[in-house]
Amino acid sequence: MFDRFATAFDASGTVGEWARVEAAATARRLAAMVVLLDQAYAADGSADREQWYLDNWGAVAAEIGAEQNITQSAASHQLLIATALRDRLPHVAALFADGLVSYRVVSAITTRTALVRDRDAQIAVDKAFAEVLTDWAPMSEEKLTTAIDAIVAEHDPQGVYRTKLTAKGRNVQFDYDGSGMATMFGTLFATHGKALEKRLNVLAHTVCPGDPRTVEQRRADAVHSITQGLDYLPCICAGNDCPGPKTPPTGNAVVYVVVNEDTLDDTSDAAVAQDAALDGDPDPLFDKPLSEMTTWDELGGNDNGADKPGGDTKHQDEPAKNDPAEHVSNDQTSAKDADTSDHPAPAADTNTNGPANTHRQSPATRPGTIIGGPFLPGALTRRFALTAKIHKVRHPGDSPPEPRYTPSRRLAEFVRCRDLTCRFPGCSEPATTADIDHTIAWPIGPTCASNLKCLCRRHHLLKTFWGGPTGWRDRQLPDGTIIWTSPRGQTYATEPGCKLLFPSLCAPTAPVTITTEQAERARAQTNRGLTMPRRQRTRAQDRTQRIADDRRLNEEEDRRRIQFDHHG
């Protein structure tokens, strides 16, 4: 199929030519999404489903997300771009289909023209972009938004997309970079920000002088104390007679971490060095004070292999710096899968004598993972374990089904630690906030590990109300693999999230003897009486209202500016 788009170019084609092919293919992908949406709207009963919590748009976005293995939110954003191109920007869409404009530019245009609602203005804006897009030179994000806004302002001044830096925009966000650390940033009321700053300073000074952390590190760790409702920061000095508080937190803000037990028990020299490296002053970027730095030093000096102008380079043999990783034994250690959490947290206890555990260990101790989040280096998991409540999660093996609908705590913890996230294709919602779903509906389907999986509420509703012989179907294997079949017959297999770091949790459990066909015959009975939660307004009505509100704010802002200029 790809060759159909690429026949004009061979391996000697330039990067720019292949970028055109990519843009044209993306345009066709987005156009196909609109076709799926139109089919959903044309189906019987679609009007009533518009007020479902998981409406026609949401169901189509779920299918698009599964097809591309992306989240439903990401798929919904693509669908929004696709409908904008079809309904508001047909001339831009034509250029996109010819590969003459990139997805990056198209995405920016569809977003920043969303407030243009007058049909004549939409037509004028679309034609204006079509006349200039192919002549635009490559632009930075800032220049691109400026150019787009200039065209919008010419035809609809109140339709310019503006960032509202008001109290309504306050929020706190988190970014996880995969190193086991997180970056927190946000916008608060000034008084709240000052109160938080003072509170962190107070908590940072509740430890004894022997605590190895810097003030900055203690301020960062004090955020966790606040989440636990503590009025102190637990001290981590090694002294038995420490006067500082060491009581572990017992709050309700729980972070679940899964980790191998041998990671927690590691007392090797390498582990000790890794643990110690978490605290103390950060390593300096340079070997001299910044006030003494020269441009030559900042560029790397002789470290880059070049000689300093006007002088000879002196080469001096230096002993290699001690790297703890070089002193770690590669010997295998027993691997009981344990779960630790940043409070009540599950852990796994499994056999290690299988082929999944015979791989060569890396020099560093094996990492853990936050359920539904990033992995954590071994040193960080050991630090968290100092104040965590630890539960061992054991593989159920061939245990018989439990005689009730709700799984026991032990079985539920195993399922959540095995799955780690929602098991719908592309979904990354944490297992800790997901429903535990019976793949074959209870009471026909048993309450056992081979018939239980984690589904976020959205995808649980999708399976329940958009499922059936002509809708979504799922089948579960004893190792936890889920095979999904879409309404159009496409199949997708999702494996348990633990397979990479904790493969022993994927060992097969007792199989389910009831067939999917038997379960489908009883589906109507088991789903009887269930109703989909409903919206107060349709998605389209909500979108129209948001646009009207933003345009009103733009008009008020313009009116204030005119009054200010007049009085000035």
TrEMBL record:
<feature type="compositionally biased region" description="Basic and acidic residues">
    <location>
        <begin position="305"/>
        <end position="342"/>
    </location>
</feature>
<keyword id="KW-0378">Hydrolase</keyword>
<dbReference type="InterPro" id="IPR003870">
    <property type="entry name" value="DUF222"/>
</dbReference>
<dbReference type="Pfam" id="PF02720">
    <property type="entry name" value="DUF222"/>
</dbReference>
<dbReference type="GO" id="GO:0004519">
    <property type="term" value="F:endonuclease activity"/>
</dbReference>
<feature type="region of interest" description="Disordered">
    <location>
        <begin position="523"/>
        <end position="568"/>
    </location>
</feature>
<feature type="compositionally biased region" description="Basic and acidic residues">
    <location>
        <begin position="539"/>
        <end position="568"/>
    </location>
</feature>
<feature type="region of interest" description="Disordered">
    <location>
        <begin position="277"/>
        <end position="374"/>
    </location>
</feature>
<dbReference type="InterPro" id="IPR003615">
    <property type="entry name" value="HNH_nuc"/>
</dbReference>
<feature type="domain" description="HNH nuclease">
    <location>
        <begin position="410"/>
        <end position="461"/>
    </location>
</feature>
<feature type="compositionally biased region" description="Polar residues">
    <location>
        <begin position="349"/>
        <end position="364"/>
    </location>
</feature>
<protein>
    <submittedName>
        <fullName>HNH endonuclease</fullName>
    </submittedName>
</protein>
<keyword id="KW-0540">Nuclease</keyword>
<keyword id="KW-0255">Endonuclease</keyword>
